[in-house]
Amino acid sequence: MIVRISGEGQFDVPESHVGELNRLDEDLTKAVDSGDEAQFKSALEALLTSVRSAGEELPADWIGPSDLVLPSPDSSIHEVREVLGDEGLIPG
Amino acid sequence: MGLMRRFSSIFKAKASKTLDKYEDPRETLDYSYERTLEMLQKMRRAVADVATSRKRIELQAQQLQRSAAKLEGQAKQAVTQDREDLAREALTRRQAIATQLTDLQAQHDQLKAEEARMVEASRRLQAKVDSFRIRKETMKANYTAAEAQTKVNEAISGIGEEMGDVGLAMQRAEDKVAQMQARSGALDELMATGALDDASMSSDRLQAELDRGFAEPAVEAELARLRGELTGGSTTAKQIDAPDDTPVKAPAETPAEAPVEEERR
Question: In this complex, do A64 and B131 lie within 8 Å of one another by their Cβ atoms?
Fold first, then answer.
């Protein structure tokens, strides 16, 4: 599957790695719900590192949509909430 | 739903809004290409804005460094004059400037990182623009309605997503630059009014006090010389009134206050 790390580029991640991403996403979701910035930073970094190591970066001239888009590495909880907009943290 | 999926769906919804879709996908291809070019131009302007902001911070830092060096010199001058109070004053102010400099350095590093990210994003967008230009012509030439549903849409949403991402990066950079400009403006004002290095007196007054430390002995000597000339010229009259008039023979170092007070008594 194609995963975009916002501000960084797109990666081709094998389907077999999706379970691992979902597990890391659970930690990230918990961190955002609790509003703990430090916890959020480390959870986001863990998720992005996992994408970078398991996936292969696509060349800059590759054009195609991503299956998943992740916040950029230096995002704050505030910035992520801003993108989520009015939906805030209420699960969709 | 996890954050990853929610973030993805909202991001993609926003990205697809940046490209209006025409009825004929071939038109949408051309339109998307135009929009991408516009985006690239905007991106270059944004990079220039960040660079301007960074340079302004560099200038402010240089100015603060000069102030700090000047205060250091003044502190030394005060110590040679045995004016510990003035030395403390100068060093306190230099400390305040050092704090400001640390803040500026942090802002500078942030802007530099932002600038590098944007240059990198421009490079990626440029690569996509070039590749998209070739691809859209091929697609238009070999256009079939069936293909339009898949390949064209894929290319368009791919380019839309890239623009959404670049748009987000630009928004972030603009916010940072705006914050930085507000802070730079405030700092400029502080430096202009001298409030920044003002612990209890202005930098000029500190210098004036130090200068007085050097000037006073010279003034005293001049004063003594004048007195000497005047009393020498009308010796008889003076001597009748005050035979023990000391200022005539006063050494240059004697403070002016002492003889004046004596005369008043």
Answer: no
Strand bridging mode A9-12 / A2-5:
antiparallel
- b/e map A24-61, b = 16+ CB within 10 Å: bbebbbebbeeeeeebbbebbeebbebbbebbeebebe
CB contact under 8 A, B4 and A47: yes
Q: Which ipTM did the prediction report?
A: 0.87
Instruction: Select from A2, A3, A4 the residue whose CB has the most chain B CBs within 10 Å, as the one to mutate to test that interface.
Output: A4
B58 alpha-carbon distance from chain centroid:
6
Question: What tokens does A38 get?
Answer: 């430090």
Q: How far apart are CA B248 and CA B244, in angstroms?
A: 10
Pairing of strands A9-12, A56-57: antiparallel
Q: Is B10 on the interface with A (CB under 8 A)?
A: yes
- Buried/exposed code over A73-83 (b: 16+ C-beta within 10 A; e: otherwise): bebebebbeeb
pLDDT tens for chain B, residues 1 to 265? 688 888 898 888 888 777 777 778 888 889 999 999 999 999 999 999 999 999 999 999 999 999 899 889 988 988 998 888 888 888 988 888 998 899 899 989 988 998 998 999 999 999 999 999 999 998 888 888 777 778 888 888 899 899 989 988 888 888 888 888 888 888 887 777 665 654 445 566 777 778 777 777 777 888 888 888 888 755 544 454 545 555 554 455 545 444 544 445 4
Q: Do B3 and A25 touch (CB under 8 A)?
A: yes
Tell if the CB–CB gap between A63 and B121 is shorter than 8 Å.
no
Alpha-carbon distance A60 to nearest alpha carbon in chain B (angstroms) = 5
Which of B7, B154, B162 faces A71 most closely, judged by CB atoms?
B7
CB proximity B159 to A under 8 Å: yes
Q: Which residues of A touch B155 (CB under 8 A)?
A: 63-64
Q: Tell me the chain A residues in contact with residue B135 when contact means C-beta distances shorter than 8 Å.
A: 63
Is the Cβ–Cβ distance between B68 and B97 less than 8 Å? yes
